[in-house]
Amino acid sequence: MSARELITENLDLWTGAVTKKSSSGRGSNGKVELTGVKKLRELILELAIRGRLVEQDSSDEPAHLVLEQLDSSVKKNKGKPRASSGASQPILPKGWSSFRVGDYLDFQYGKSLPAKQRDDSGSIAVYGSNGVVGFHTEALTEASCIIVGRKGSAGALNKALDPSWTTDVAYYVQPPQGFDFEFTYLLLQSLHLDRLGKGIKPGVNRNEAYSLTALLPPLEEQHRIVQKVDELMALCDQLEQQISDQLEAHETLVDTLLGTLTQFENATELADNWARLAAHFDTLFTTEQSIDKLKQTILQLAVMGRLVEQNSKDEPAPSFLQRHGIKNHADSLQGWAEVVLGDLGGVIGGSTPSKAHAEFWDGTIPWVSPKDMKRPLIQDSQDKISEQAVELTSLKIVPPHSLLMVVRGMILAHSFPVAITGCEVTINQDMKALVPPPEITPYLLLCLQAARSTIIELVDRSSHGTRKLVSEKLWSHVIRIPPIDEQLRIIQKVDDLMALCDQLKERLSQARETRCHLAEAALADAVGRC
Length: 530
Prior knowledge:
The protein is α+β, with helices and mostly antiparallel strands. Among the domains are: 238-308 and 490-518, no CATH class; 317-482, Adenine-n6-DNA-methyltransferase TaqI, Chain A, domain 2. A 5-stranded mixed β-sheet has the order 14-21-18-19-16, covered by helices on one side. The protein has a 4-stranded antiparallel β-sheet with strand order 4-10-7-8, with helices on one face. A 3-stranded mixed β-sheet has the order 6-5-9, with no helix packed on it. Helix 3 crosses helix 6 (181-190), helix 8 (219-262) runs antiparallel to helix 9 (267-279) and helix 11 runs antiparallel to helix 17 (484-528).
């Protein structure tokens, strides 16, 4: 099977294998990594450096003549034995030779060039461990070279095609005669030098790199391999773009159809929109991102009063709130009320007891900070304080059934962590607590989860980048409160629907894992047949 056939005949395998990704990157659509295409690229590289990508040509000058010529003109690496002198050698493609990396590829140290010594008015690129870090007027190397990260991004590879300067956190490699520049770059990629940069003191030790064995084809075949790799990688680029476009189109369709569920004029229109969505459920909700958006829509429908029926026998929310001294006004929905968040209970701020007082710490009282806000119910924390800290500092006890919120920190750029306390806690200065009537706390949690995007828009960003929710904005947020009995029905319905969504996500996760395993197996099988 040719390399092109390997791509085209396993198209579903390469395009179907994706994994969730937290950060954006090439071919990731910002949210997923195209694992199948990544494995395909690895396979192309493996076939290339094993001599299985292009045909051998008996008229090509054998690689051993290139190495022998280098042997006669360059002093070898301080007399260290070459790989070719070993007792056993791999079976090589015709005309190929094996060699020890240190015998022919020189990893030269870069030279320190601190930022204050650089001259950005120049045109000479200055390379760090993983790319250009500035410019200068002088060059360390006049010829093209391959930059190998030594520290920092250990093992990262970059090509400097023009005169450049390499700093002391990297090596530079200039391929000798008989080594095609682009093929040498592929060869160094195949050595996985980043794996050498692990351990207590991360960094690529060049002696470890020198001890590795590599294969060298005839120079003419190197050229053919580079051309074939470029052609196949271009196909991978097209495949990635196609998948990315499909994911983007799918995301737009999901957003549009889900949007119709929360933007309607009457019950008939809502029913029609839901029927339209239900008819395409299997094709719409095929990614974790689409299911997460469905969850958010469920929350929005819940707080809009569109998930369960109203019951005229329920005690109206205004009556309940009035008993608790909470000012409100009636909502258009039967028995509902509208109230400002800050009017629903007392507000408690947080602080950090002095670390200089050891007696304030390692007690039994949870001291909650944003890092603890990963669950909707808080019953413990990583840090604990003592009763003395509560008695002698400004800290206040937050009672059970209160709402905790993160009001400061970078997490507010994309999320709004909120949770219910399951026991008495204290909080740090990046948190606020609201103490409402305990009967409505679970529903308030649901309301704030549904309003996440709205509340994120209220976040202020300081000149140095800090995110903060100003109290006036947060506590002025309007909450719509249904009757207590209806709250219970809404919460139960949300729990049921969220459980179904989680089951769907689990099936997707299992299917995705299977596809990724198949891609791994296909790669291993193809390499094994080389």
